[in-house]
Amino acid sequence: MNRLEVTEKIITAKVAKGIQWADVARKVGQSKEWTTALCLGQMTATPEQAKVVGKIFGLTAEEQKWLQVVPYKGSLPTAVPTDPLIYRWYEIVSVYGTTIKELIHEEFGDGIMSAIDFSMDIVRQPDPKGDRVNVVLSGKFLPYKTY
Questions:
Q1: Which of 20, 52, 138, 140 is the most buried (most CB within 10 A)?
Q2: 48 is catalytic
């Protein structure tokens, strides 16, 4: 048994039972974005969260323990993503990455946006020309220190 096998079991149960990530998140008590990342093997659950996820997806006690192990972060199988939706994010960073970097540095100074002290919100934005995907990424600014 390993974390990838637990992730595959969760996805299989989700499909079989018609479960929605937002419903799982409500029961776990976290955002749908964080909870989805947990279930896909990118976050670490508390024992209580693992028990809730285990109940929803029919996980054994051993499988629930795998949810509590700090994972190896990064879930893409290739350096350049081949999935069309994920590739669009790669394209956004390729095209706008330097602009994002420049504007963050101009506003905040030399540093980075944290992906640890971080939140994300994904919502559907109705639009007469076709609904839009609204993604808000919010990370704490961490300045480089001098020493």
A1: 52
A2: no
Is 124 labeled as catalytic in the residue annotation?
A: no
Which tokens hold the place of 94?
């390729």
Among residues 114, 119, 132, 138, which one is catalytic? 114
Q: pTM for this structure?
A: 0.86
Q: Is 60 helix (H, G, I), strand (E, B) or coil?
A: coil
Active site residue 138: no
Q: What is the pLDDT along the chain (147 residues), one digit of tens a residue?
A: 999 999 999 999 999 999 999 999 999 999 999 999 999 999 999 999 999 999 999 999 999 999 999 998 888 888 899 999 999 999 999 999 999 999 999 999 999 999 999 999 999 999 999 999 999 999 999 999 999
